Amino acid sequence: QVQLVESGGGLVQAGGSLRLSCVASGRTFSSHAMGWFRQAPGKEREFVAAITWTNLYIHYAGSVKGRFTIAKDTAKNTVFLQMSSLKAEDTAVYYCAASEPGSRWPYEYDYWGQGTQVTVSS
Fold first, then answer.
1. CA dihedral (19, 94, 60, 70) positive or negative
2. Sign of torsion over alpha carbons 105, 72, 93, 40
3. Which of the ends of the chain has fewer CB neighbours closer than 10 A, N or C?
């Protein structure tokens, strides 16, 4: 099992920045990749970004490419999502996820955090 805890959400004005963190614990040695997803009110959960623990493959959704950056600190089992030039439409609950080896990169995950709220005021 892998446990994931997100932090860093909050209220920010449009054009501002936030950095989300996700700390993984448990069987992290088996994790293949980490991802960020988000779910806005009344909408389905959508993929945001993903990174592999090795080989450093990275993938972004088109809607955040150039504005968001995913990074990891392997020693601390932590993944970050640096969000810049935030827009009102980025408002959502952001979830961290981890996948086991063999999962379909970059969209399939086995473990999920509880989420952290990001609200962007226009």
1. positive
2. negative
3. N
Report yes or no: 4 and 98 within 8 Å, Cβ to Cβ: yes
- Are the beta carbons of 103 and 111 closer than 8 angstroms? no
Tokens matching residue 34: 């980490």
List 25's β-bridge partners, or say none.
3
Residue matched to tokens 């997100």: 6
Record the tokens describing residue 72, joined without a space: 């990891």
Tell whether omega for the bond before 101 is within 30 degrees of 0, i.e. cis.
no
pLDDT in tens, 58-97: 999 999 999 999 999 988 999 999 999 999 999 999 999 9
Please name the residue ranges forming H helices in 1-122: none
